[in-house]
Amino acid sequence: MTNDLATNQWGLGVTTAAPDAAAALDETVWSYLSIGRETGNLLKTVLDIDPGLVMGHCLKGYFFLLMASGPLQARVPKVLARAEEGLADASPREQAYVRALQHWAKGDPGAAARVWEEILADHPLDLLAMRLAHHTYFYLGAAGDMLGSIERIISAWDESIPGYGFVLGMRAFALEESGDYTAAEESGRAAVNIDVVNPWAIHAVAHVMEMQDRHSEGIDWITGLESHWNAANNFRYHLWWHRALMHLDRGELDEVLRLYDEDIWDPDSDEYLDLCNNVSLLLRLELLGVDVGNRWQALAEKAAGRSEERLLPFIDCHIVAALAAAGQLEAARDMATAMVRAGGVFAGVGGTVSNAMIAHRAGNFADAARLLRNVRENIVSMGGSHTQRDVFELVLRDAEAKLA
Question: Could you give the CA distance from residue 217 to residue 210 in angstroms, rounded to a whole number?
Fold first, then answer.
């Protein structure tokens, strides 16, 4: 079959040997933006329809990298090679997507983001490029870039264009992380009003309420929309985590433990965000004097399998904390040393935070406080949200209190 250029629902060309593949690709992208559970299966359907689809292979590579999993990352070179096979027939936009995947596969997500920005400059309705750049800026700790990316293209959008709610949801989160809570909540609520199946927008408004200590409102917001976000993939556990934090701030510690056991902990999951949710919540409970029993042991068993990956310093700091909390101090120290040897943000921030978490667990509160103070101003560079990184600030405060 010869390749022709089909058109997706945003008027963008898709080079394919099977015109049905463009509609199937649209459905996959929509599911990705909705944080749907069927995204992976939908992508398999796309590649069944057109096994040579460049955008299909690009998306597969992106998904593997988004999962921040060592075994999946190891599969990226093969997927990239399949995408590169179709370069000659691909459009300039599709060639740019391959180029971004090349950068990311080499460990340079910042360069990949610059390519997605080039795509958006020519194609401001390209929601996939927008969401990928949004994710990357988030884990680079670049809230300003995350917001600027959306603000540069927002004038090209309105409610008549499919997916406008996703754009507003990304804008809401970028505004929240930039400290503009009023505009963030307005944008997030508008996004949900357009399409209530928008877990990212629901989550952005929850962040605003958490940052403003509006805990009762936040619980009502999350609970009231549960039927719309609880159908999401493992990201649903993160929204349960946000609700748990709000109960924590209200002093309802028994409810937090119930939520952890019944709605947040998944014994079968090895996804990094689930791991980080679990570690962060148990740490916060312990800092309030709660005995979390043997929960650390089950969590450390998962964490140990990811101790050598060096994919994101944000993840690694949580893994070190889990190992240390379970009494595996030597393994935690070995991992922190490996982070320092890795250089860059892993060494300058991640290794320092990890050594602080180990020191705190070992009762060396002076070192814990000193190390955390040293990175306080640039801890944002390891990514994560204000709310997620706040656990390290809480550890610092606890160490300082114990030294007083």
Answer: 9
Rounded to whole angstroms, the Cα distance separating 183 from 160 reads: 22
- CA-based nearest residue to 153, from 144, 164, 142: 164
Measured CA to CA, the distance from residue 63 to residue 237 in angstroms comes to 19
Element housing 329 (H / E): helix 329-342
Q: Are 129 and 114 in contact (CB under 8 A)?
A: no
For residues 340 and 346, the answer to whether their CB atoms sit within 8 Å is yes
HSE on the CB side for 260, CA within 13 Å? 26
Q: Of the candidates 340, 323, 341, which has an alpha carbon nearest to the alpha carbon of residue 332?
A: 323
**φ, ψ for residue 345, nearest 5 deg:** -65, -30
Q: Enumerate residues 6+ apart whose C-beta is below 8 A from 51.
A: none
CA-closest candidate to residue 238, choices 275, 200, 274: 274
Q: How buried is 324 (Cβ within 10 angstroms: 0-12 exposed, 13-18 middle, 19+ buried)?
A: buried
d(CA 285, CA 391): 11
Q: What is the pLDDT of residue 4?
A: 63
| Partners of residue 36 on adjacent β-strands | 232
What is the spatial distance between Cα 123 and Cα 112, in angstroms, rounded to a whole number?
16
Answer yes or no: are the C-beta atoms of 16 and 50 closer than 8 Å: yes
For residue 55, give every residue at least 6 positions away whose Cβ sits within 8 Å of its Cβ, in sequence order, or none.
Answer: 14, 15, 25, 94, 97
User: What is the full DSSP assignment across 86-145?
Assistant: TGGGS-HHHHHHHHHHHHHHTT-HHHHHHHHHHHHHH-TT-HHHHHHHHHHHHHTT-HHH
Residue 312: partners with Cβ closer than 8 Å, 6 or more residues away:
68, 139, 272, 382, 383
In angstroms, the CA 112 to CA 129 distance is: 10
Cα radius of gyration (the chain): 21
Give the tens place of pLDDT for each residue, 136-169: 999 999 999 999 999 999 999 999 999 999 999 9
Residue with tokens 């606890």: 398
Per-residue pLDDT reduced to its tens digit, 32-58: 999 999 999 999 999 999 999 999 999
